[in-house]
Specification:
7 helices
Length: 151
């Protein structure tokens, strides 16, 4: 039985499986299950997260989860997971001085995977991204100081 989506009718005699009928599952139920997976991903981003594990977490078959995830998020699970990991890594780089290998581990990747991801998606290295982000932050801070009024 998948997530209570099937109701059995009749009895099972051991030879012929009972007839099943598909019960309607609302879009809200599917959205809620995918939202739960999204939250789980955010809190466990440092771990290996597979489609099969997330499908079980959503109480769906792999095929149903893949279809529903794409419908709700607009992209595949792997693409979404990659985006979430990249955004979290960018946040760490902007807001901390943690070394890149530690940031990579914190987002569930190896340092080389994080470097490759930055190279492919941002045409940059994590170190270059951090330098650029810190330069922008310093400029904003200097601009805010120069425009503030002192009595």
């Amino acid at each position: 039985l998948e997530a209570g989506n099937y109701f059995l009718s009749g009895t099972f005699d051991g030879k012929n499986p009972p007839a099943t009928t598909k019960a309607p599952v609302s879009a809200i139920d599917n959205f809620g299950a995918i939202l739960n997976v999204h939250n789980y991903m955010l809190f466990h981003i440092d771990r290996a997260l597979s489609i099969d594990d997330m499908a079980r977490h959503a109480a769906m078959s792999r095929a149903q989860f893949t279809r529903q995830f794409r419908q709700v998020s607009g992209c595949s699970f792997l693409e979404y997971l990659t985006k979430v990991r990249l955004e979290r890594a960018k946040q760490f780089l902007r807001e901390t001085d943690l070394p890149v290998p530690l940031i990579a581990r914190a987002v569930g990747l190896h340092a080389s995977q994080l470097r490759n991801l930055f190279s492919l998606r941002l045409n940059s290295t994590p170190h270059e991204f951090r330098q650029h982000a810190q330069t922008k932050k310093k400029r904003r801070s200097a601009k805010a100081k120069s425009t503030s009024f002192h009595n």
